[in-house]
């Protein structure tokens, strides 16, 4: 402190008082300039042009123009604006000086007058044009956001399909359509391809892994080519092993603690998952549904909140065509639990599998009121035409009953009609249509 | 003394038990007038630590091994252009892939030259020239693939092939290989070196089995996943391996003097893989009818079972698909609650699978119905059952069908291998005997259960089918016929050798 001069000490003492004094003025200036700042932000080019015109005849304009240039540089954060602003400031200053000299009353010498004239003609054009031509950061950002621009364009030009407006539905229609197309192509390969093509198709279908894809693989278990049969078996076996490992792990947990609710539920879910995966034929799937019911019942006994096991039990019973049992499980839930979207969806599923479409639609309505997402199969049911000719409904059970297994031939032949009409799966004592029409079944959409 | 027959075997007798091993043992035992030496192709030394599992007959005068993955890296002091040697080997492989055999003979002879153009594994793996050829090949064929994968694939495909080509086999009157593959190429090399006849007998089709294994293998990297297309071509490395085995099969087929197989269905596969159909003859398996005739008498004279009894005879392993049988048993038990299913066969091949089967039995509440008994004396136990069932996903000519058929039992079998031929007949007169059982699709417990229930509800048909099958086995699958056929084959070819010497 002793090294400071007297002036320094006085300045230091004045510092806080200066700040206090300047702060309101700075705030006022900022407030006064904020419309200008907004104008500069919105249309910096217009401001530059106007300022330049003004600067042509006024010294104040030169200052304004320099401010605008600086403002634009700061706004766009592009370094080119600063020298641009500087150049235009210099030009504006030159013109202001020239104008000032004229006002003094002394006529300008001819060369100087000509220079002012030329500048007066070109600078208002050159300056703003130069400023205009400099790239703006916003333009570069627009190019990078081309994808967003494309989406906006798409939204603008593509026609809206009222039944599938996004406000109500989640757009599974496109997915269903793509699924039908890709399944059809694989079906053709499996019908007419050579061994290598079939092998490749089986591999791809296993990768896709939807139940209706796996139904096509099951169909190849009876291919005339032994090699193809082995490939089909291999793909299915690989998928089954994954589920069996999960079942094994769950059983191990149950063995460790018989009273572990989560372990029993996990075992029930593993059995159920395998049953509805489409990997198994209808016969063996039934056994795993029974396993799911056994474990799910035990889980329900052990749990304090039986909702999860109840839903699984209802779905398992429904798939075994045990509609009353499924209904009883759901009815046992409390009123509050029944308002759960998952419970509504399960009710819809049980009704759907029992061919009670009216009830299923009621549950769909409830789901909409709850603001919950609806799977594709339920959406398709909601928009399906109820006035389908009666012979279609009468023929469908007969077709399904004709082949109790229904995995090989029926899965190939029935699936197109089932998919095309979004018709519900047949209610059967076995699960012959389950794998084939899983695209339209609750689990096909639920995943 | 030079043995009469050198049997070239790969992964089978005398180190592995199974159908092929049993067949080889039968052949050797039933031809005591001939001497045999065995050359076994093993992966590496000590791969079978337990040693031979069969009491080899006295007419086996030698047992040696060729190890695929043992390389002696001794620098080759011989002359000759190292790069040219490697190129010649690659050209040989390419020729064999295309079915051209011209360079095979000259290559084998070149291998045996001392000094000069002789070639060893050092030339193939350790020289700058071999590296250059490897890189050139990579650039020509597989530049889009991982070089690291290509390097190891190159090494592990060419070295075993080179080892069998360079192996010195014992001298013998003729060379008889029981598969294509490495043993088949070794047999072909022996034929060229020793100028002796070469015979091939195929049970399963080696190339087809390898192709299926390779196409299903997950350890061979597949970069094409994610593309939703049905390609005709498998990924590069899978194609590479399949081509390798196809090449070995072509060599074996081309150089075999005679080719034999167990059933007609195999003939088509062999022809597709390049065999000359004029060389192929069907010599089916056979069983000792005398021994099984005694068992048949026991079966005929025993009283009806109080419980409907079904038997499965075979190893408890995935290829036998015992789980399908267990699911089928559950379905049968719903209509026939006291049905008994006896699973007779060793369970030590795949203990995890056996455990899964046990779990499945518990899951399906079949503890009172299905029992995994382990190995049994087939002659004693099989006559006690009503039906034999087979749910395998792959077979050649299952001996269990012949054995059960000889006793007089009908069979429910999956449509694999020669099962259909065995149950319904091969030749015209064979087919006239009528059905000996029922055929079901693979992995279809419903169909298997349906067939078992049909036999339960219709004992007359069951007995009739059993009789038909017994008649068929007695007429066409007598072990003596098979032995007689091979005696003739060996003597014919050995006679040619003797005549050639004179």
What report would you give on this structure?
- The complex is a heterodimer of chains A (447) and B (502).
- Chain A is an all-alpha fold.
- Chain A is 76% helix and 0% strand.
- In chain A, α11 packs antiparallel against α12 (261-276).
- Chain A is elongated and about 110 Å long.
- In chain A, 38% of the residues are buried.
- Mean pLDDT of chain A is 69; it is low at 138-144, 160-170 and 387-447.
- In chain B, α2 runs antiparallel to α3, α2 (82-97) runs parallel beside α5 and α12 packs across α18.
- Chain B is globular, with a radius of gyration of 25 Å.
- The chains are: A mainly alpha (447), B alpha/beta (502).
- At the A-B interface, α8, α9, α11 and α13 of A face α8, α12, α13 and α18 of B.
What does the secondary structure layout of this molecule look like, with pairings?
The complex is a heterodimer of chains A (447) and B (502).
Chain A: H1 6-42, H2 44-57, H3 59-76, H4 81-103, H5 110-133, H6 137-144, H7 146-157, H8 172-192, H9 195-208, H10 211-219, H11 226-256, H12 261-276, H13 282-302, H14 307-319, H15 323-331, H16 335-338, H17 341-353, H18 357-370, H19 376-383, H20 390-402, H21 409-421, H22 442-446
Helix pairs in contact in A: 1-2, 2-3, 2-4, 2-5, 3-4, 4-5, 8-9, 9-10, 9-11, 10-11, 10-21, 11-12, 12-13, 12-14, 13-14, 14-15, 14-17, 15-17, 17-18, 18-19
Chain B: E1 5-10, H1 19-30, E2 36-42, E3 60-67, H2 82-97, H3 102-111, H4 121-125, H5 128-141, H6 147-166, E4 174-177, H7 181-194, E5 198-202, H8 206-216, H9 236-255, E6 258-261, H10 264-272, E7 280-282, H11 289-301, E8 309-313, H12 322-335, E9 340-344, H13 351-363, E10 370-374, H14 378-381, E11 387-390, H15 399-407, E12 411-414, H16 419-424, H17 428-431, E13 437-440, H18 445-457, H19 459-476, H20 479-501
Helix pairs in contact in B: 2-3, 2-5, 6-7, 7-9, 8-9, 12-13, 12-18, 15-19
């Amino acid at each position: 402190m002793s090294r400071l001069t007297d002036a320094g000490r006085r300045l230091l003492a004045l510092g806080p008082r200066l700040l206090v004094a300047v702060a309101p003025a700075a705030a006022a200036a900022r407030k006064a300039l904020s419309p200008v700042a907004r104008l500069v932000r919105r249309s910096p080019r217009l401001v530059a042009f106007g300022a330049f015109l003004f600067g042509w005849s006024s010294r104040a304009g030169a200052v304004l123009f320099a401010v605008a240039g600086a403002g634009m540089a700061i706004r766009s954060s592009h370094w080119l604006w600063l020298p641009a602003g500087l150049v235009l400031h210099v030009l504006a200053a030159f013109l202001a000086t020239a104008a000032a000299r004229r006002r003094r009353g002394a006529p300008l010498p001819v060369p100087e007058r000509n220079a002012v004239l030329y500048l007066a003609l070109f600078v208002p054009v050159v300056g703003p044009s130069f400023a205009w031509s400099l790239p703006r950061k916003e333009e570069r950002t627009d190019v990078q956001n081309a994808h967003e621009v494309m989406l906006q364009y798409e939204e603008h030009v593509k026609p809206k399909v009222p039944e599938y407006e996004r406000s109500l539905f989640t757009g599974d229609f496109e997915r269903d359509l793509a699924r039908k197309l890709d399944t059809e192509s694989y079906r053709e390969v499996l019908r007419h391809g050579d061994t290598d093509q079939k092998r490749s198709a089986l591999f791809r279908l296993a990768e896709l892994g939807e139940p209706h894809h796996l139904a096509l693989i099951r169909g190849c278990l009876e291919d005339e080519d032994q090699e193809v049969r082995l490939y089909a078996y291999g793909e299915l076996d690989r998928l089954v092993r994954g589920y069996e490992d999960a079942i094994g792990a769950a059983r191990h947990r149950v063995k460790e603690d018989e009273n572990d609710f989560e372990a029993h539920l996990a075992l029930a879910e593993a059995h159920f998952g395998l049953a509805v995966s489409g990997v198994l034929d209808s016969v063996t799937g039934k056994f795993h549904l029974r396993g799911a019911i056994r474990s799910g019942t035990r889980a329900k006994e052990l749990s304090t909140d039986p909702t999860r096991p109840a839903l699984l039990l209802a779905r398992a019973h429904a798939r075994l065509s045990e509609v009353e049992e499924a209904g009883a499980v759901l009815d046992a839930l409390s009123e509050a639990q029944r308002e759960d979207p998952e419970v509504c969806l399960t009710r819809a599923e049980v009704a759907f599998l029992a061919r009670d479409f009216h009830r299923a639609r009621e549950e769909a309505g409830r789901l909409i009121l709850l603001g919950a997402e609806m799977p594709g199969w339920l959406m398709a049911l909601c928009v399906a035409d109820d006035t389908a000719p009666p012979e279609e409904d009468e023929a469908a059970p007969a077709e399904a009953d004709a082949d109790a297994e229904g995995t090989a031939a029926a899965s190939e032949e029935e699936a197109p009609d089932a998919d095309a009409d979004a018709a519900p799966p047949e209610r059967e004592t076995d699960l012959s249509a389950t794998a084939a029409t899983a695209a339209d079944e609750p689990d096909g959409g639920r995943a | 003394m030079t043995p009469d027959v050198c049997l070239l075997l790969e992964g089978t007798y005398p180190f592995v038990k199974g159908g092929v091993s049993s067949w080889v043992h039968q052949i050797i035992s039933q031809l005591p007038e001939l001497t045999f030496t065995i050359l076994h192709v093993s992966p590496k030394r000590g791969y079978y630590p337990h040693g031979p599992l069969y009491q080899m007959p006295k007419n086996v005068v030698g047992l040696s091994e060729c190890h695929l993955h043992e390389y002696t890296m001794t620098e080759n002091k011989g002359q000759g252009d190292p790069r040219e040697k490697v190129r010649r080997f690659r050209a040989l492989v390419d020729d064999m892939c295309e079915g051209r055999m011209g360079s095979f003979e000259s290559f084998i002879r070149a291998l045996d030259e001392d000094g000069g153009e002789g070639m060893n594994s050092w030339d193939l793996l350790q020289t700058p020239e071999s590296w250059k050829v490897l890189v050139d090949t990579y650039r020509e064929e597989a530049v889009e693939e991982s070089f690291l994968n290509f390097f190891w694939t190159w090494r592990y495909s060419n070295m075993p092939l080179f080892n069998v080509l360079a192996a010195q086999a014992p001298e013998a009157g003729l060379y008889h290989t029981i598969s294509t593959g490495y043993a088949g190429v070794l047999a072909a090399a022996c034929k060229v070196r020793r100028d002796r006849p070469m015979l091939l007998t195929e049970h399963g089709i080696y190339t087809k089995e390898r192709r299926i294994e390779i196409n299903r293998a997950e350890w061979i990297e597949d970069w094409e996943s994610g593309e939703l297309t049905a390609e005709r071509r498998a990924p590069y490395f899978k194609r590479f391996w399949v081509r390798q085995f196809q090449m070995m099969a072509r060599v074996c087929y081309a150089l075999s003097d005679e080719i034999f197989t167990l059933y007609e269905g195999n003939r088509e596969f062999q022809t597709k893989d390049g065999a000359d159909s004029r060389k192929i003859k069907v010599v089916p398996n056979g069983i000792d009818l005398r021994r099984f005739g005694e068992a048949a008498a026991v079966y005929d004279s025993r009283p009806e079972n109080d419980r409907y009894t079904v038997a499965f005879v075979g190893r408890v392993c995935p290829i036998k698909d015992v789980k399908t049988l267990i699911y089928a048993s559950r379905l049968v038990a719903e209509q026939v609650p006291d049905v008994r299913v006896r699973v007779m066969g060793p369970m030590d091949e795949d203990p995890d699978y056996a455990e899964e089967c046990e779990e499945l039995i518990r899951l399906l509440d079949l503890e009172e119905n299905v029992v995994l008994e382990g190995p049994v004396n087939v002659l004693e136990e099989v006559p006690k059952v009503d039906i034999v069932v087979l749910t395998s996903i792959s077979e050649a000519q299952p001996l269990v069908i012949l054995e059960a058929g000889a006793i007089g039992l009908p069979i429910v079998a999956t449509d694999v291998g020669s099962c259909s031929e065995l149950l319904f007949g091969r030749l015209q007169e064979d087919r006239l005997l009528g059905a000996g059982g029922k055929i079901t699709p693979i992995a279809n417990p419903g169909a298997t259960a349906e067939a078992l229930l049909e036999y339960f509800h219709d004992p007359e048909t069951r007995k009739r089918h059993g009789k038909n099958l017994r008649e068929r086995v007695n007429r066409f699958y007598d072990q003596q016929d098979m032995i007689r056929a091979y005696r003739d084959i060996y003597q014919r070819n050995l006679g040619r050798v003797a005549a050639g010497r004179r």
